[in-house]
From TrEMBL:
PANTHER family linked: 5-OXOPROLINASE SUBUNIT C, CARBOXYLTRANSFERASE DOMAIN-CONTAINING PROTEIN
InterPro entries from the UniProt entry: CT_A_B (IPR003778), Cyclophilin-like_dom_sf (IPR029000), PxpC (IPR052708)
SMART domains named among the record's database cross-references: AHS2
Protein name: Biotin-dependent carboxylase-like uncharacterized protein
Keywords recorded for this protein, A-Z: ATP-binding, Hydrolase, Nucleotide-binding
UniProt-recorded Gene Ontology molecular function terms: ATP binding; hydrolase activity
Every Carboxyltransferase domain range: 29-306
């Protein structure tokens, strides 16, 4: 087995770059959230293109600004958002496996299409798991490249366990690449408190357009639009699932993502599906989204098809 060694060195950190595997599960009873990639779709394709198994750690790059130097030859792929990535100053093709030689410079610029890009290397990034995962959750100080939940900083070395992989492999454009600039259609499974909202509010929720607020991060995304009215004035806090759409007293929904709190006490319209969460995670502030009520069976079938492509 190849021993892990530093494969990439950070020469410029950028605003936010985190190491993420599939997430941390079975620990919410401890008050620990799941972490993992907020865009499961882009993360999965980056790993798939370099031949990694499901769950391999990849780098989530938000907004760009990250610069890396290769300290050895690597096969890598970038999927998800177009963050104006370059290799030695030349445009780096996304959604494609390619070979990077020692000393070459990989840089992410500013967003062109989407918000978060995923960088995977053949063999995967190597880090010590914490509570069974290397998923980086900065708020909880868990996981990541150093095990302490830190974002990448200048001078950090990313250890890899390199292996051979085919170069030139590309993702099918129709199945993988997404124009994240288009209005997002988000599938939502109705939840336990949906009957507590007024009829007018439910009509507005699923027929009006919403805008992504600038108050958005890995914990959740606030949506602005019509004011939703709920008859419930209080409720006992309960467990919060990925994609839960809570409605606080101001009537503006919040879609909770991977770094959400584990319990909450606001009524919920329901929960976005995992693929809807992925789509929302690529939306820039001000972007238009719409909520579409979905049946559990159709949501499960869509997710099974997605996962089946990475078996």
């Amino acid at each position: 087995m190849t021993e892990a060694s530093v494969g990439l060195r950070v020469t410029r950190a950028g605003p936010l770059a985190l190491l993420q595997d599939a997430g941390r599960f079975g620990v919410r009873r401890l008050g620990v959230t799941q972490g993992g990639p907020v865009d499961l779709h882009g993360w999965a394709w980056a790993n798939h293109l370099v031949g990694n198994a499901w769950g391999a750690p990849a780098l989530e790059v938000t907004f760009g600004g990250l610069e890396l130097t290769a300290e050895r030859g690597l096969v890598l792929a970038v999927a998800g958002a177009d963050l104006s990535a370059t290799l030695d100053g030349q445009p780096l093709p996304g959604w494609r496996a390619l070979f990077v030689e020692r000393g070459q410079q990989l840089a992410f610029g500013s967003p062109v299409n989407g918000l978060r890009a995923y960088l995977a290397v053949a063999g995967g990034f190597a880090a010590a798991p914490v509570l069974g995962s290397v998923a980086c959750v900065a708020r909880e100080g868990l996981g990541g490249h150093d095990g302490q939940g830190h974002r990448l900083a200048e001078g950090d070395g990313l250890r890899v366990t390199p292996r051979r992989a085919a170069v030139g492999r590309t993702a099918p454009r129709d199945d993988a690449e997404i124009d994240y600039r288009r209005p997002a259609e988000l599938a939502l499974l109705p939840g336990a408190q949906i009957a507590e909202f007024s009829g007018e509010s439910l009509f507005q929720a699923f027929n009006a357009s919403w805008r992504v607020d600038d108050r958005a991060d890995r914990m959740g995304v606030r949506l602005t639009g019509p004011t939703l009215q709920c008859r419930m004035t209080s409720m006992i806090s309960e467990g919060i699932s990925l994609g839960a759409v809570q409605v606080p007293p101001d009537g503006q929904p919040i879609a909770l993502l991977n770094d959400r709190q584990t319990i909450g006490g606001y009524p919920r319209l329901g929960a976005l599906t995992p693929l809807a969460c992925s789509r929302l995670a690529q939306c820039l502030p001000g972007q238009e989204v719409r909520l579409n009520a979905a049946a559990t069976e159709s949501a499960l079938e869509a997710y099974r098809r997605f996962r089946g492509g990475f078996a």
